[in-house]
Amino acid sequence: MQHTGTGGKLTYTLAQSPSLGTLSLHLLLIMKVSYFYLLGLLVSSGQALMQVTISLSKVEISVGQSKYFTCTVIGEADNIDWFNPQGEKIISGQRVVVQREGIRSWLTIYKANVDDAGIYRCQATDSKGHAQEATVVLEIYQKLTFEDVPSPQEFKRGENAEVLCLVSSSPAPMVRWLNNREDVTDIDDRRFAMLPNNNLQIKNISKRDEGIYRCEGRVEVRGEIDFRDISVIVNVPPEILAQQRSFNATADRLEDITLFCRATGSPKPYITWHRNGKLVEENEKYDLREDNTELTVKNIISTDSGLYVCRATNKAGFTEKQSFLQVFDVPSSPYGLRVIELSQTYAKVFFNKPDSHGGVPIHHYQMDFKEVSSEIWKVVRSHGTQTIIVLGNLDANTTYEVKVAAVNGKGKGEYSKTEIFQTLPVREPSPPSIHGQPGGGKSFKLSITKQDDGGAPILNYVVKYRSKDKEDQWLEKKFLGNKDYIILDHLQWNVGYEVHIIATNRLGHSEPTVFEFLMPPKPNIIADTLFSGLGVGAVIGLAVAALLLVLVVTDVSCFFIRQCGLLMCITRRICGKKSGSSGKSKELEEGKAAYLKLLLKEENGKEALSAEAIEIKISNDIIQTTESDSKA
């Protein structure tokens, strides 16, 4: 190797070495000489040489670990900076911190995560802007990590359960589920399956699926393994066992009654009682025993009647059942008592039904009334459960007080508030109400309906009447006030009449009631004579008898003249056929005799026809028939 220098330049000439070893030695020598030559040039030119090194060139840590790196600079460096894998200058923060002290700078990464992986650069810069740098490779892997794996995990019976196990690593772990040291996915039960997110699904989970399930993760490249044991609990919704649905008690007898409510479920249900939407708590009225499964209602009164709700609750849900407590009691008092109609002698009183019938249907209402000045109460019962009662036989212009109570199978309830009223003073009566109908013969019947008598008895009725067609004088009659009808006699046929009727009491008389009517036409005397004594049935009977008689006469005539008809048919069946005129004449004689005997019988004790009349008619018929036969 030759070395020549011209104009500050060095020239090396590599001579051919006799062997390969000699060549390697020469190359190494050339590199060293070149290094020192360059260093000399830099020094001679006034520029210092910087050397940057990092303590580690490649580092591997797991997620969550912390690590720091040291960057050392040889030479005059004004700035030492760190750059992240994205090429951004690192500025100190909470988790990534940069510190410098002299020729050293430290980069610290706390709780590293996967995103922190990459190539980090330490760059030194001198005053002239010349820079030197060194790099370090940071590799981050994630160890097996179980995040938020709750235990126990609870599910409701019958639902599709998903047992959670969030496990992660890099590379991704292999996960399997074990129960009683057996891989559940290998069990011959299709209800078990591992989902893509590594959770365990149990379809239609039941109480027998309860137990400890192990979620196991493995990273084979590192031989890493870890697990979590998870307790699986299956909750069963509460169910209330059969219980009595209704209870009966009687009020105001210091009775106690106990309601029962027992339930099953997992976990054990908690029992509460409710009434009218409010929680029943133990106090002087209610006693709760046996974990609230028994509720005793003490000193029963009517207001204790109603629904009591038993509610069983656990983590899986709740259920309710109702029990009805029927408390029998007398009814509460009616209210709103008032007089709705009043006269001198009666009062019509209305009231509202009581709010409570006491659990037993109301039979009737009892109304008590008396004069204010009297101590004796009189009692009136209602018609069934009607809420209007009429008080009669009252004295006019008198003050009364009245009260009412409801009565059921348990007895009479409390009375309503007392109402006071005064009857009207005595006055003239109101006009009576009249309607009429024809009587027998020349008479007419007037029916009288008494109206308000004015507080005093009706003494009599004064009746005035006359014909409308003729300007006759008024005829007047008086009848006692206790009569409910009047008969006017000796009237004219087919004549209209006008009637005025006045009611009279001790204070005077009423306004007249005007009534008009028309007498019927004169009846048919013959028809009346024949049938006046007979009823409709008798007349119909006579008509039917006459019709039958006509039919019999016709049939007999046909028998004798034409040898036909019903009678002829009967005779032939009984006597047989006979030929010749002698036979025919004999039949005629026998038939004639039989027919005469039949017609001479009496009907209802009266002779229908005379024998002579019948004989003449038949003889004429026979003669006519004989003549016609001879001509033929």
UniProtKB/TrEMBL annotation:
Transmembrane segments: 20-43, 529-553
Membrane topology qualifier: Single-pass type I membrane protein
Major place of residence: membrane
Domain Fibronectin type-III: from-to ranges: 333-426, 428-523
Subcellular location: Cell membrane
InterPro entries named in the record: Cell_Adh-Cytoskel_Orgn, FN3_dom, FN3_sf, Ig-like_dom, Ig-like_dom_sf, Ig-like_fold, Ig_I-set, Ig_sub
Pfam families: fn3 (PF00041), I-set (PF07679)
Sorted UniProt keywords: Cell adhesion, Cell membrane, Disulfide bond, Glycoprotein, Immunoglobulin domain, Membrane, Repeat, Signal, Transmembrane, Transmembrane helix
Entry keyword Glycoprotein: yes
Residue span, Ig-like domain: 50-137, 142-231, 238-326
Keyword set includes Membrane: yes
CDD domains: FN3, Ig
UniProt cross-references to PROSITE patterns, sorted A to Z: FN3, IG_LIKE
Entry's Gene Ontology cellular component terms: plasma membrane
An individual GO BP term: cell adhesion
SUPFAM superfamilies the record matches: Fibronectin type III, Immunoglobulin
Protein name: Neural cell adhesion molecule 2
Organism from which the protein derives: Xenopus tropicalis (Western clawed frog)
Underlying gene: ncam2
